[in-house]
Amino acid sequence: MAFKNRLLLIVTILLAPAMLLTGCTSAPQIKHESIFYPAPPEKPRLQFLTAISSEDDLTDKKPGLDDFLLGGKETDKTMGRPYAAQAVKGKIYLTDRASNDILQIDLLKNRIRPLRTGGKGTLQTPSGIWIADDGSKYVADLKRKQVVVFDSDDNFLTTLGDATSLERPVDVAVYGERVYVCDMQKHQVVVFDRVTGKLLSAIGKLGDKDGEFNRPTHITVDRQGNLIVNDAFNFRIQKFTPDGKFLQQIGMAGNTPGSMARPKGVVTDLDGNLYVVDAAFENVQIFNPEGKLLMFFGGAGLEPGSMYLPAGIAIDYVNIPYFQKYADENFKIKYLIYVCNLTGSNRLNVYGFGDWIGK
To answer: Does the structure show a pLDDT above 90 at 132?
Structure first.
């Protein structure tokens, strides 16, 4: 897309009136430095809290003279091109397209470290990541054409799939005893048994009808086990039962709120609302379970709260205490939202969704 047309898309989205989760009341008294969505005078529902690109962002430490002169240990302390994120208590895990590794952000120790997996667990081009209820990690690896599985202590466990069953596994999700792998090249969601590793079935085929895909890139599951798939080149999100029965389509190609231009990561909250990253609009749109647009946040740029080639998204209910210090005193955080930016100065944006409790 030409730069002028891309800019027009972004401006159209940013200037369009947002459909808010709650109605407008009297204008809240907000600190000047706080960044909220929607912006005043509307009642805030989401606040940009901080951005993490290196260990220095975890401690508010400025780079020292040694770092300036010697360049520091960049692979140990910084993010390259974070693509996907998942969180457990006290830690955030990212797939990094620059180092081709998993980065662990330790929120208690304020450090970032690569897992540096080796042997059978060596990653080549990690893409999507999913952390199951028992803490085991499932990583879709494009080049290996497999899903690589690690335990809760980050030790290699096993692999799922091979070159005969997977061609370009770009994302993965787990529910119960099933592992769902989004294969962009096969235009399918490939299903494996989580315990035995056996190939169970495949959902979809190339096309634009209900239940068909054109280059699907991201997948998630909701609390009921329903599959939500980003059907990228059809510019829509599709929802299926756990067994692969088509349920719903959300979005369409376009440049207006509720439509999609370059959809990427998808995630749902505990209420069933759907969050969709769009790398062209450089924002995230939020839809209710019926597919109605509620609001959007982000936008193009380098300033705090903006996004630059966003890709993955994750929701986190357990690590709020680590980010509470960034919240406005009148804003009560209910959960965190992480958005991965492939480039720009802010690699992992952290937002808080919640309620305005002030006047």
So the answer is: yes
Q: What is the pLDDT of residues 9-67, one digit of tens each?
A: 444 444 443 444 544 445 555 555 799 999 888 899 999 999 999 999 998 655 554 45
Tokens of 108: 């208690």
Tokens, residue 315: 């929701």
Q: Which residues contact 275 (CB under 8 A, 6 or more apart)?
A: 266, 267, 268, 269, 284, 285, 286, 313, 315, 337
Separation between Cα atoms, residue 171 and residue 265, nearest integer Å: 9
Around Cβ 255, how many Cβ atoms within 10 Å?
A: 18
- For the purposes of burial, counting CB atoms within 10 Å of the CB of 98, is it exposed (0-12), middle (13-18) or buried (19 or more)? middle
As a residue count, the chain comes to 359
Tokens, residue 57: 């962002």
Token code pair at residue 59: 């401690």
**Following CA atoms 116, 154, 334, 37 in sequence, which dihedral angle do they give, to the nearest 10 degrees?**
20
Beta pairing class for 156-160 and 263-268: unpaired
The residues, ordered by sequence, that sit 6+ positions from 170 with a Cβ below 8 Å of its Cβ are: 127, 128, 140, 142, 182, 183, 184, 216, 217, 218
